[in-house]
Amino acid sequence: MADAAHIPDEVETRARWGGFAWTGENAAKAREIIARYPAGREHSAVMPLLDLAQRQVGAETQTQGWLPVPVIEYVAKSVNMPYIRAYEVVTFYTMYNMAPVGRFHVQVCGTTPCMLRGSDDVLAACKNRGLSKGHTTPDGLFTLTEVECMGTCANAPMVQINDDNFEDLTFDSMSAILEALANGETPKPGSQIGRMASAPEGERTTLHVYQGADA
After folding, report:
1. How far is CA 1 from each of CA 6, 118, 145, rounded to the nearest angstrom?
2. Which of 10, 75, 91, 135 has the greatest number of CB atoms lying within 10 Å of its CB?
3. Is the pTM of this model over 0.85?
């Protein structure tokens, strides 16, 4: 796709990441993850291990992280899995990044519920800030990706930025979130209109707290 992120040349990637290995802390975490599964079922650990590897790459590059081919190979080998099987997992789930991203990976849901509730305004706020789909801003802060449903339809439109969801967005609230992140602040995740979880907007209109027999 025209807005897909650019995957670096493999020669360049191997030169940078060919010697990838777990840090001491992550090696311990990897052993703990693998130990959750019965002997002979180590393949089941591949998803959390890929996530762990992506986070380690992110820590080393001060970004949200991605999975170069040598890193995928390393994870696959750690659970005795053919590389292609691990690669299939990485390419199936949008939680894994196949190309470098910025410090904040802004994933905007463009599926029907979010589109009907204003995802175009969310994308417009991103564009107004200089973000464009499939690209990282020149300052290295933001990468913008449009993704499919992330299961927050009741609070549409929404975005996921790194590990946090931001919901009930408008052009203004999305602009404020990007501004806060750019300034080194931590915007509050979840609903941006104050609702709890996916409860209806506003106050209760029918169900009230029971006051006792004399109420």
Report:
1. 10, 23, 12
2. 75
3. yes
